[in-house]
Write a structure and sequence with these properties.
Blueprint lengths: L4 E7 L8 E6 L2 E5 L15 E4 L2 H5 L4 E5 L5 H4 L2 H5 L6 E3 L1 H13 L7 E3 L5 E4 L2 E7 L8 E6 L4 E4 L17 H10 L1 E7 L14 H12 L4 E4 L5 H13 L3 E5 L1 H13 L9 E2 L12 E5 L9 H6 L13 E4 L8 H13 L3 E3 L14 H11 L1 E7 L3 H13 L14 E6 L2 E7 L4 E5 L2 E5 L1 H13 L1 E8 L6 E10 L8 H16 L3 H4 L2 H20 L4 E8 L1
Parallel strand pairs: 3-5, 5-6, 6-7, 11-12, 12-19, 13-16, 13-17, 14-15, 14-16, 17-18, 24-26
Antiparallel strand pairs: 1-2, 1-20, 2-3, 4-22, 8-9, 9-10, 10-11, 20-21, 22-23, 24-25
Length: 551
């Protein structure tokens, strides 16, 4: 219906990351963010997860623009993969587009229309009028959105917290959000990440106190791992390093690249002579050295992981080193992070992280801030965004407490459609939505079936049965030969493998000569018989691969 506004989340509702929201009215679509997420533990071999773009590809002629709320990869990481397939203008603040340009360069994407905006700018995209409003978050240049449509006004917070003392001194545009409350807001979409956490989120400046305490006590080298996009945190580490007359060496491709971009755009200020190259490390004493690295989430190939495993070319942990993980443990990464911490401790480092020190503050609003925003915007309808179901659920409870009617609150999943018209709001079915897995250079070629196979291989291994059959007679002339990997140790399990071989021979003998010429039937019969035998004998389910060779 041309007079109906559709709200369609394609990612970010039901998970941490993957943020992508579609708004559609008539022949116009705008897209808010295009994010990735970390692979979950059961996504073996997957490098990155991005949203399923099917709905956008099917309606690409309607898309008027992609709007980015800030530069974190859970809001921008999928953008290069989308822009490979569609050509649309992208809007974002200076730092956001600076980070995006680097990503597009890595993907060898040229000719993309990138339109810089500033807080309080207004743009027109078809029937949508979008106003950018400054928010405070854990990255510089974050914005919320005030969107005017023919049906009513919408406010989208992006990621935010209420920080009265931001590192860069740029306060949130409270008055702009309040204006939308005064004018009348039809729909409010608000960040739910910290909806379970009571009270208020601490200011980013609180981290400085912890850093100063650590730097004052550290006698040797200091290694700080944080997100490369957290320019505020990097700024504070540099400021404290300069305060204690230490030099800073940045390590990690994204860390150096992001810092350079922020420096060129004026978002990062480094005192002259403070930032040194890695090859200048040798002229520094240990109590003069600070490394800022990537790897706060325990990523296997990150700088910090290589340091922890003693595989870094230049940095070897020694007794007296202090390692600081200045970032939150993202759900699903706890085990990898713990592994890195354990290795660092074994090598003699003093390791400081979120659970033992106030070395990190969240970039997301807690309960009281969320309630305050709801009270300022005063929406008729509310959709909690950005978070797992429990985050969305508890945020909806907060909305009820601030006066939003329960029937006007929609807890959605990716792909759900809510429509708004002159008669109110209602659920209107679903569109194609889901996740696409990036494995190396492949996009979407790893699906649920492949992941299940990888899980089976990881848990129970593989048994390969090689059989040589004469084509004309159907007679077995060689084998069966049994090869296993990750199933049993072959040298110590010859008796079991002999039994497996006999089971296969019996299965082949039970098949007629005519059937033996039908290789798919032979493979299926061997696979079924062997699977039942191994399950009964060992209570295992290895992947079984019969290979028929015509002789």
């Amino acid at each position: 219906m041309n007079d109906t506004l559709s709200i369609i989340p394609l990612g970010g509702l039901g998970e941490i990351g993957l943020n992508m929201m579609v708004m559609e009215y008539g022949d116009d679509i705008i897209v808010i963010d295009s994010g990735q997420m970390f692979p979950e533990e059961d996504m073996l071999g997957v490098d990155m997860v991005i949203p399923d773009f099917s709905y956008l590809l099917d309606n690409k002629e309607k898309i008027r623009g992609i709007i980015l709320t800030h530069g974190h990869e859970d809001h921008t990481g999928a953008l290069p993969y989308l822009l490979r397939q569609i050509s649309v203008p992208v809007y974002g603040t200076l730092l956001t587009l600076g980070l995006v340009k680097e990503k597009l360069k890595e993907h060898r994407l040229e000719g993309i229309e990138l339109n810089p905006v500033r807080p309080r700018d207004i743009i027109h995209l078809g029937d949508f009028t979008v106003e950018f409003m400054r928010v405070t978050h854990s990255i510089v240049d974050g914005v919320g959105l005030g969107i005017t449509t023919p049906v009513g006004r919408i406010v989208h917070t992006g990621d935010f917290k209420l920080d009265p003392t931001p590192v860069d001194g740029e306060l949130m545009d409270f008055h702009k959000f309040s204006e939308y409350g005064d004018k009348g807001t039809l729909l409010f979409l608000s960040d739910s990440t910290n909806s379970e956490k009571g009270g208020y989120t601490f200011s980013e400046k609180e981290v400085r106190r912890a850093l100063e305490d650590i730097f004052s006590k550290a006698e040797g080298r200091i290694i700080v791992a944080t997100f490369s996009s957290n320019i505020h945190r990097i700024q504070q580490i540099i400021d404290v390093a300069a305060m204690f007359r230490r030099k800073v060496i940045l390590n990690g491709k994204s860390m150096i690249s992001n810092a350079q971009i922020a420096l060129e755009l004026g978002y990062l200020k480094i005192p002259k002579g403070t930032w040194l190259r890695m090859d200048e490390m040798k002229r520094l004493s240990e109590n003069e050295t600070v490394f800022i690295t990537t790897g706060s989430q325990g990523e296997p190939l990150s700088v910090l992981s290589r340091i922890a495993m003693d595989e870094h070319k230049h940095i070897r942990i020694k007794k007296g080193d202090t390692v600081v993980l200045s970032a939150k443990m993202i759900p699903g990464n706890e085990r990898a992070i713990a592994r890195v911490i354990n290795h660092l401790l074994k090598r003699g480092a003093d390791v400081i992280y979120e659970k033992v020190s106030e070395i990190h503050v969240s970039g997301h609003a807690s309960k009281e801030e969320l309630k305050l925003m709801l009270s300022i915007v005063r929406p008729k309808y509310f959709i909690p965004i950005h978070g797992e179901y429990r985050h969305l659920f508890y945020h909806s409870r907060l909305a009820e407490k601030t006066g939003v009617q329960p029937e006007n609150i929609f807890i959605l999943e990716d792909g759900d459609v809510v429509e708004f018209g002159k008669d109110g709001a209602w659920r209107a079915g679903r569109v194609a939505a889901g996740r696409a897995f990036i494995d190396g250079k492949g996009i979407g070629d790893v699906g649920d079936v492949v992941l299940r196979d990888r899980l089976r291989l990881a848990h129970d291994g593989v048994v390969i049965v090689i059989i040589g059959i004469e084509k004309l007679t159907g007679k077995v002339v060689t084998g069966p030969d049994i090869i296993s990997r990750g199933f049993v140790f072959e040298d110590a399990s010859q008796e079991l493998l002999t039994e497996v071989k006999e089971v296969v021979i019996t299965a082949l003998e039970s098949m007629g000569k005519e059937i033996k010429s039908e290789w798919p039937l032979v493979q299926a019969g061997v696979k079924s018989t062997l699977r039942k035998y191994i399950l009964k004998k060992m209570d295992r389910k290895p992947m079984i691969l019969p290979l028929i060779i015509e002789v």
